[in-house]
Amino acid sequence: MGAVPPRPAPRLRQKRLRPPRLRGLPISRLLPNMLTMLNLASGMTGIRFAMEGKWKEAVLAIAVGALFDLLDGYIARMLNAQSKFGEELDSLSDVVSFGVAPAMILYLWALADARTFGWMAALVMGVCAALRLARFNTMLGAAEKPPFAYNYFTGVPAPAGAFLALLPLIATLEVGEGWFDSPVLVVPWTVGVAGLMISAIPTFSLKGLRIPQRYVVFLLLGVGMTAAAMVSAPWATLTVVGLAYLASIPFSAKRYRTLAMEAARLKGEPGEGETVAPEADTAASAGKAGPAV
């Protein structure tokens, strides 16, 4: 019987050296915050243009800030990147871009000629924007609202308020000086818009709007015509859009009251005098939960 061959010595398994994992946040989760900071930078840049007397550029800077404010909320929800930090950063940026910046632009443009009253109007604009955003933050996670209330804002949203406040300046860029640049007009206009921002008037929100199939073609046609008008006569188009938005506020309040009474009737409750707080929000158009880190 032959001798058993010796077993080969076991080979020592060498551990693979893996590179250490990178710690930190992916760029996709930081993108909403980047857009929020661009919103803030746009508002501050608008103030700089106003100090240099560049009124067209100042208005465009606020418009660009509103676009960034719209995008950061949508992208935050798409990427599931909401956080408390993002909510607070967005609110603070909106106070500057849609409260302080428009107030300073109006003050440097026309309100300064009214001296104390002009400065008071600018202060009211900035303070009301801060109060609106503070109210929005405190209403997050509040009591559940009826479904129809989510299609309305409480008062005029901050970006829309900034746009309405700048409407006399926008109209002046179209028709020239001597019509809408008088402090006698601009002072009460600024205070009135600031009051709309902190009011409890329900205003339409586009985030929950559903377009019937038969109206889609007409909607797209209207968007195309508006885009063409913006290219050929931007300031006149913006003026018409602002006036149309103002005209829609009484209709939104009436429609909201009708829906509230109908909801109360279906529940078997008295509808007269009953009010349900609509959703408070910051953006035209976004209803966002805030971008995240």
Describe this structure as you would to a colleague.
This protein has 293 residues and is mainly α. Helix content is 62%, strand content 2%. The protein has helices at 27-51, 55-78, 84-109, 116-139, 158-165, 167-175, 183-198, 216-232, 234-266; strands at residues 152-154, 202-204. α1 (27-51) packs antiparallel against α2 and α2 runs antiparallel to α3 (84-109). The chain is globular and about 115 Å long. Residues 280-289 have low confidence and may be disordered.
Chain-wise SSE layout:
Blueprint: H1 27-51, H2 55-78, H3 84-109, H4 116-139, E1 152-154, H5 158-165, H6 167-175, H7 183-198, E2 202-204, H8 216-232, H9 234-266
Antiparallel strand pairs: 1-2
Helix pairs in contact: 1-2, 1-3, 2-3, 3-4, 3-5, 4-7, 5-7, 6-9, 8-9
Condensed summary:
By secondary structure, this protein is mostly helical. The protein has helices at 27-51, 55-78, 84-109, 116-139, 158-165, 167-175, 183-198, 216-232, 234-266; strands spanning 152-154, 202-204.
Keywords for this structure?
2% strand, 9 helices, mainly alpha, two-stranded antiparallel sheet, single chain, 293 residues
Derived from helix and strand composition plus strand pairing, the structural class reads mainly alpha
Topology as H/E string? HHHHEHHHEHH
Fraction of residues in β-strands: under 5%
Tally of separate helices: 9
In spatial order, strands of the major sheet run 1-2
**Low-pLDDT regions:** 280-289
Anisotropy-based shape: globular
As a whole number of angstroms, the C-alpha radius of gyration is 26 Å
Largest sheet: 2 strands, antiparallel
